[in-house]
Fold these 2 entries.
Entry 1:
Amino acid sequence: MTFCVYTRVKKKTMTVEDFKTWLKQFDADGDGRISKNELRTAIRDLGMCFTTWKARKGVRIADANGNGFLDENEIEGLVEFAKNKLGMKIQG
Ligand SMILES: [Ca+2]
Ligand SMILES: [Ca+2]
């Protein structure tokens, strides 16, 4: 079941570090990088719909070395996406 309401989008402004910490809790297999499926879980946790599409797009935008995962140093590339497409408030 999909809830398309933005109930869990953080109202408070996050820093980029907060964003990384937030995203890391969705690193289900603990390999230190975020896969498309892990990003989808994160987006779903925000209460959004079209999570598969958004996760695919987010990985495509931020995956600088093209290995299909968001490595730690690529997560910053996701910040603009999170601000513009996920409505998150992130500073820096
Ligand atoms: Ca992972
Ligand atoms: Ca990568």
Note: The CA atoms of residues 4 and 49 lie 5 Å apart.
Entry 2:
Amino acid sequence: MKWQRFLSIPIFAVFLLMGFVYYVTLFVSIEDWVGLRSSDGSFHASVFSFLAFYSLFSFFVCVLTDPGRVPSSYVPDVEDRELSDQEFRRNVKHQRKCEICSTYKPQRCHHCRTCRRCVLRMDHHCQWINNCVGYWNYKAFFILVFFATVASIYSMVIFIACVLQKDWKVWGQSHLKLFYVVCGTPVLGLSMILGSLLCWHIYLMANNMTTIEYYGGVRARWLARKSGQGYRHPFNLGVYRNVTSVLGPNMLKWFLPAAVGHLKDGSSFRIAHDTRQIT
Ligand SMILES: [Zn+2]
Ligand SMILES: [Zn+2]
């Protein structure tokens, strides 16, 4: 069932792009720059292959891991939020109920229209992995973006080194130039897109925020600024705690996409003491 997720055009496009960048890096850039069989060439080919295959492994983990399903027995615990007003409690219960699934939604859980179900700590639905990015696969998604970014920047640097050392007076035929433009454009584009995505998710992780919560909190931030107050995301517990809540407390396991033993059931999250807002 899970393997059926691979039967999608965007995933096929990802495999094609990965294969293309791998081919360009090894058989165009490294080969033309220092030669694949030289010691430098073998070193760069090995480093890039490791980065590429680790990205591929993380990609498989992202696609195959269930992002998080709400337990059928789940009922929201409004008592723990120290709410005294009955009406407010009813409102909270109402807001946390999914009208489509007819079940209660835990904090940070959202309904995904594409997956047609509620997803725990939903970040966003990603068509490139044909899956939601949620509580159980966010770590794998972050590691995928991290390694894919490092691999693309590595590939871009090798490509630029190759272009700079080439004697274009000898190799200056227009069809060869066109070949290098066709090879280089996806590598440069990918580095910029993945680099931006990585910066975005570093920001989100450092603030213990999901993409949905960021956009949901825009109005709250604006209102706070307007009234001269500071706004703090309710789940923001400080950078170190925020990062370890995703990557885990053991730094040796930070870059293992399937090491998620530190995660609990995904239905409740610690809230910073100075605020009770939910975004
Ligand atoms: Zn739902
Ligand atoms: Zn989804």
Note: Helices lie at 9-33, 39-64, 86-95, 138-165, 174-206, 211-216, 218-226, 239-247.
